[in-house]
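Run log, item B.
One chain of 136 residues. Sequence copied directly from the ordering sheet:
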Amino acid sequence: MRLHKTLLALAPLAGLLLGAALALADDAAPPPEPPPGRVREWCKENPGKCQEARAKHEAFCKENPQKCEEMRQKRAERREYCKQNPDKCEEQRAEMKQHMSEMKAKCAADPAKCQEMKDQMRERMQHHGSGPDPAP
């Protein structure tokens, strides 16, 4: 039951992250954001994109210091939670990887539908004022 509540609490976050990933996806380029927990590897493979992402993050934090601090606190809380509950975190990561694989397969099967979802997410992110500018 406790796991169920945890998953329910993480579902909106997972949806937001997935939607953001879909919204930011560019079929011809490497992923615009580093995968969670693999920033160093991603930066070695994509130095230009890494520098660009850092600059965007710094600009965002200058414009939204409170929001940036809230995100830092949430990351710290999540790290602490995962230190205390490594099995649960690993299970959640595995579930997220599975979900991402399913979404990739769906997008490969129906690229038009996938593009529609990306466009919708970009629009939602703009309305909330928290997302990046839409890709041209």
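Observations after the first pass:
- The radius of gyration is 16 Å.
- The mean pLDDT is 77.
Flagged for discussion on Thursday.
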